[in-house]
Specification:
The structure holds two protein chains of two kinds. Chain A is mainly alpha-helical. Chain A is built from three helices and no strands. In chain B, α1 crosses α2. Chain B contains two helices and two strands. The radius of gyration of chain B is 53 Å and the shape is rod-shaped. The termini of chain B are far apart. In chain B, strands 1-2 form a two-stranded antiparallel sheet. By secondary structure, chain B is mainly alpha-helical. The chains are: A mainly alpha, B mainly alpha. At the A-B interface, α1, α2 and α3 of A face α2 of B.
Chain lengths: 81, 159
């Protein structure tokens, strides 16, 4: 039986997978189309906040942590390109 | 049965005795003779029968004194043995009291160890409870982070 932390980390991993699978492509398309700049700006701010909270959690020893960092990094790269 | 000739107060008597007891009978006869002569001289009686009765009474008196002395000695010995028994019992009581003190000390030590173990157990329970509470807070934070990432993913998925 998974502990509560393991269950939460599993959910985090699944959320990152969803973000990687669909989010990056959609974000690239939105940025390329130059549409809804306010929405893109809110997304950028939210991603920054998520990264800050993630770093505060100090989950560096868990396998999901690298994926969170990488996914957010790619999203930020798209936004800042 | 053997026959022994004994002389009491100047007169000889043939008496029978068990084989091997001749010397003893002669010795006893000498004792009786000594008393009979003493009584005959002291009383001046020439009646042989009276002298023998008095000598017999003297021997019986001596035997009664000896018996009384022996009984007194036996009673004294029994009392001493009782005293020895009481002293031994007292010694045993002292030993048991010392043993009781040692047992009480061991019991106190065991109680102290038990209390210490109980305190350690309580501390461990507190530690476990604190760790579970901390893990709960970390899990909630991770879940909140996952929810926010899900929200971001959903907002990107929407047309």
């Amino acid at each position: 039986m998974l502990s509560r932390i393991e269950s939460a980390l599993q959910r985090l991993g699944q959320a990152v997978t969803r973000l990687e699978e669909t989010g990056i492509g959609r974000l690239e398309a939105m940025v390329a189309a130059g549409r809804d700049e306010a929405h893109v700006e809110r997304l950028g701010a939210e991603l920054l906040a998520v990264r800050a909270d993630y770093e505060e959690l100090q989950l560096t020893s868990h396998k999901a942590s690298g994926r969170v960092d990488a996914a957010i990094g790619r999203l930020r790269a798209v936004l800042e390109a | 049965m053997a026959q022994v000739s004994v002389t009491v107060n100047g007169r000889s008597y043939q008496v029978g005795c068990a084989d091997g007891q001749e010397e003893r009978v002669l010795t006893l006869a000498k004792e009786l003779d000594a008393r009979a002569r003493l009584l005959a001289e002291a009383s001046g009686s020439v009646n042989e029968g009276v002298v023998l009765v008095l000598a017999g009474l003297m021997v019986a008196d001596e035997a009664a004194d000896e018996r009384a002395a022996r009984e007194a000695a036996e009673e004294e010995l029994a009392a001493l043995r009782r005293d020895d028994g009481a002293a031994a019992l007292q010694g045993r009581v002292v030993d048991l009291e010392a043993e009781l003190v040692r047992a009480q000390a061991d019991l106190d030590e065991s109680h102290a160890a038990l209390r210490a173990a109980h305190e350690r157990l309580e501390q461990r329970r507190d530690d476990v409870a604190a760790r579970q509470e901390q893990e709960g807070r970390v899990a909630e934070a991770i879940e909140a982070l996952a929810a926010r990432i899900e929200t971001v993913a959903e907002s990107l998925r929407a047309p």
